[in-house]
Amino acid sequence: MAEALATISQVQDRGMIQIRADLAQAGDAIAEAAGLALPEQGRITTDGNRSLGWMSPDELLLVLPLAETAEALAVLQDALATEHALVLDVSDMRAMFRIQGARALDVLAKLCPADLAAMPDDGLRRTRAAQAACGIWREPGGYALIGFRSVADYLRAILAGAAAPGTGLDPR
Amino acid sequence: MLTLTCPYCGIAAEETELQPGGEAHLKRFGPGSSDAEFEAYLFARRNPKGVHFERWRHAYGCGKWFMAARDTATLQVYGTYKAQTPFPTPEIVAAIQHRHPQWRPDFDATSPTPTSAPEGLTQ
Amino acid sequence: MTQTGPFRLPRGGRLIDRAYQLPFRFDGRQMRGVAGDTLASALLANGQLMMGRSFKYHRPRGPIASGAEEPNALLGLGQGGRFEPNQRATTTPLVGGMVTASQNAWPSLNADIGAVNNWLYRFFPAGFYYKTFMHPRPFWKHVFEPIIRRSAGLGKAPTEADPDKYEQAYAHVDVVVVGGGIAGLTAARDAGRDGKSVWLVEQTPHFGGRTPTDHADGQSRVDALLAELRGMENVTLRRATQATGLYDHGYLLVRESLADHDPNAGIPRQRLWRIRAGHVVVATGALERPLSFAGNDVPGVMLASALRDYIDLYGVAPGRRIVVVTNNDDAYRTALAALDAGLKVVAVIDARSTADGALPAAVRARGLRVLTGSAIAGIKGGHAVEAVKICAHSGSGQVTETVDADCVAMSGGWSPVVHLWSHCGGKLNWSDAQTMFAPDPSRPPTGADGNAMASCAGAAAGDLLAAELTGAQAESALMPVWVMPAHATRKMKFKMWLDFQNDVKVSDVELAAQEGYHSVEHTKRYTTLGMATDQGKVSNINGLAVLSKALNQPIPATGTTTFRPPYTPLTLGAIAAEARGETFLPLRKTPMHGWHEAQGAFFEPVGHWRRPYCYPKGGESHGDAVAREIRAVRASVGTLDASTLGKIIVKGPDAGKFLDMMYTGMMSSLPIGKCRYGLICNENGFLIDDGVAARLSDDTWLVHTTTGGAERMHGHFEDWLQCEWWDWKVWTANVTEQWAQVAVVGPKARMLLERLGGMDLSAEALPFMGWAEGQVAGIPARVYRISFSGELSFEVAVPANRGLELWEKLHEAGRDLDVTPYGTEAMHVMRAEKGFIMIGDETDGTVIPQDLGMSWAISKKKSDYIGKRAQERSHMTDPGRWKLVGLESLDGRVLPDGVYAVDEGVNANGQRKVQGRVTSTYLSPTLDRPIAMGLVRHGPQRMGEVLEFPAGGQDSYKARIVDPVFYDKEGSRANG
């Protein structure tokens, strides 16, 4: 039997910080504090091991090494102290998966109604994977998918199921 | 199954990514309103065959509520616009009239916003 | 070639590979087919013409078609969990080792007892059930219904779970072409040349449709198109892929067969594609119509195109002596194909007075008899055609000649397959010249932009010949023939089948018209025409033509019934896909879920969460476990996994003002460091959620919701913030899952937490309804001094990733204190002992806080909050509303949940009046007696009164109205 369409692995070493603010007003301060360019609508900017994703017109998600989270949180809170802004450590409430391999897109196409093939290279798409909310962006060699921690088992199971060997989406 | 474009994030979301929220542009009536006003606010809803303005939330997405102008019979979407819009925008009205030249808005877009902030809240 | 059946022709068979023989079983008999066969072609090759029995009369039936429209040849496939009823033999690819069985026949296909209905056909007319089983009324329930239920339904439902896997996939495509015939291939090529992303889906395993069979150079035309398409990177071709329905905004459902009937393939059986198509080209071809002559359902009578297919595609001859009967030129192709295959063609019977087109000329040139102006008067034979009686078409059936034959190929013309076009609102026009409904391009189904989202091509568009693509020569006009012969007798019409599967005949439709069923939709339901599993693909036009004639109106005035998806039945497995077993729902698990599982917790669903209901030890019953847990908590200390409680951050300069609008109570005045219980109502005034809010800082609150309410309340907050008060400066965030939360509860709770160290949790440092931040057992924590049990209680929130660590440390440190994990049921009982309400028990969407004696939680100072105006309505302020009380069972039995207290008198319907109901009821282990709460009219003013609660039959309970707080009325325990 052929190999799985993609390798599914859960990522445990990433921290996440949710930022809610008026991006037009506080964008520069956030970018500076996060050390990343402010993403455009629907995009995610990446530099080294940090990414800053556009979640909504007033929400960003900073993804970074878990060990750097506490300090980044303090820096951001400091930078936004005079703004009407909310900066929260949300590392623990998320489950993150990597879908790696040449057929990673097939795996996601079985679960997500979003047109991920058309997503720009630096796109971030919030959608659902089967019945669970998720966010997806590209990483070298595949995709990153984040969802809620309580449904991590569900996400792992549906991703593994969708990646079952011999189930590529090419015409037969 | 509908697709609607979220005006906040530009995503053409399908119905399973959205949460419906009923009729748009309702004016809230709170304490001090008459029984008739309050009853209409809570219960009286249009049910047109044709042009309709409704609320949708991009639930599996950016989480924002937005408005859609839609034809309930043909399912044509005349446009979507942000929830913080007191009345359908001139672009929406134009899109509707492009399809239905006889259609006239039944709202007065020059009047104050239909939303009401409660007054005299004790802090 | 007897190995693959006596009816296999020595040559031919475009789709089969004779080198690969495939054994299979039919009704226990071992048979052989070849690779490329359908089940129907393999059965025919083995001489098995009769494949089933009709639904109502149990008439012997063979296949009349070679494709998806087949109404007769429905088989049960597979065994055990893989058994599937009603599978079309004509579209099921033969797989080696297949086990198949006929349906609707007992004890056997050849000797079926139900066929007695066939002799009684005069007593089973249209509407038989409606007319017969009306009286006497009691007979319905005890006699008629059981009999009908036993005989209802075609095929048997499988009894075991389906072991196969299914999956779904999404696709976003510019143009989807449905149908891989020559029109579809051409449309795909054209769209492909335009650079669009194109899918072409074909229901069969082969491209080309009818063209290779029907046209001399058809195969090469198809091959040329395929070669070009296969060279286009933007074009995807999918075979064995059935478009089943077209829905709003270009949403197209397509089922791809991956390993149908091949359980060893190790891959999903089917894949359901959910496609968003920019445009759909409906190139689904056309279906041939049967002719309505007496005996047109006898096995061996089939569509002319089907006979052609069996000969050309599979090298099978369903008969040796063939009669062709037609009203058009196309059927002459069948005569030629039969001749080419070396079969005897007895005659071509043509209802038209002349047949002088190129095809009839070619047939005559081969020396065949062509009988124009003729018709079939009847068929001799029951289980198979033996002879054909011929008459003049213009007459009433006077037999002029009887010819020996074993197969009749009939053609009544063709109907475009307009299903997909019509599913989403495309309109049709009637063509008198071609006697068919064809798509009206000026009234297409429209999409989100208001423009056409589908178009039709080739035969589906009404261009039956598609001469431009096939190179076909023009044919002469057909003649409408709806009943054959034109003046057939009533007796003949009793044997003219319209709907073969459901046994609806010309006589039934005429009877319906006579009885006043003028609407085609009513006639359909009265006669069951078109209601079988084939959904009337071959019967509908014939049926409504007969109805129109009976009503003496043109066919377009009668119109068609509604075309509804799916085009062919869809398996439930494909609809469910991954949503079964462990992944049926996204089950939500707390960070301590694994620990609970290891302890043998019994879980209960709360929303999508699974929460421990109790932790039974050894052989303990759930009730005993709950009682033990409660006693342990009240005596010493217990822990509850409260991680599921909703936690929402509300922050901003206007956060206080906003929360005052959301809650009935005052949240803006809550001091930093304190907690306050609050109620949330909807705009209708009804209580929808409750929980404790904590003020974290000047501009930040953390509000707790119920377990089931977290997403709902967060959505509720966001709705008001985004859509009503968007100028208020407030951010919200649902951080429910960021925190693991443990309620440490009981008189020794503080002692236990102090052993873990890190925080001053003394009554002075952290008084009741206060919260503090610090460390517990070296883990960053927020501790809320709140109580839902009435005991000394600390809710400890730590980052979710460290929840299990905290939980385990608590259990390690408290071993000598008998620290006991307790579940939701113990929590429920303890809160009821304290008279605390539970959303969903004391509330049901019609209860306002005032009903629950909770006016204390409603601020009198606020001019507004969500629900305030509603609570001012006369019905809400009515003193007669049912209000919360405690209920004390008089005889020591626990009151049943939900029972009603009866009042004097009866209502307008003669039912006893009621005056209250039980909302929560338990056996209290703490008090060792039953306790209950309920809503009772004027309840709080009626302390001491006894109410009666009938509980069905003679059983009745009595309970006294008491204070709802059963335990520790002073509340001293929580203040410890």
UniProtKB/TrEMBL annotation, chain A:
InterPro entries: SoxG, TrmE/GcvT-like. Coiled coil: none annotated. This is Sarcosine oxidase subunit gamma. It comes from Paracoccus thiocyanatus.
Automatic annotation (TrEMBL), chain B:
It comes from the Bacteria. Residues 103-123 are annotated as: Disordered. InterPro entries: SoxD, SoxD_sf. One of its GO terms (molecular function) is sarcosine oxidase activity. Residues 110-123 have a biased composition (Polar residues). GO terms for biological process: tetrahydrofolate metabolic process. This is Sarcosine oxidase subunit delta.
TrEMBL record, chain C:
It comes from the Bacteria. The keyword Membrane does not apply. GO terms for biological process: tetrahydrofolate metabolic process. InterPro entries: 2Fe-2S-bd_N, FAD/NAD-bd_sf, FAD/NAD-binding_dom, GcvT/YgfZ/DmdA, GcvT/YgfZ_C, GcvT_C, GCVT_N, Sarcosine_oxidase_asu. Signal peptide: none annotated. Pfam families: Fer2_4, GCV_T, GCV_T_C, Pyr_redox_2, SO_alpha_A3. Residues 883-968 form the Aminomethyltransferase C-terminal domain. Keywords: Oxidoreductase. Residues 495-578 form the SoxA A3 domain. GO terms for molecular function: sarcosine oxidase activity. Residues 592-862 form the GCVT N-terminal domain. The keyword Oxidoreductase applies. Residues 174-421 form the FAD/NAD(P)-binding domain. PANTHER family: AMINOMETHYLTRANSFERASE (PTHR43757), AMINOMETHYLTRANSFERASE, MITOCHONDRIAL (PTHR43757:SF2). Belongs to the GcvT family. This is Sarcosine oxidase subunit alpha.
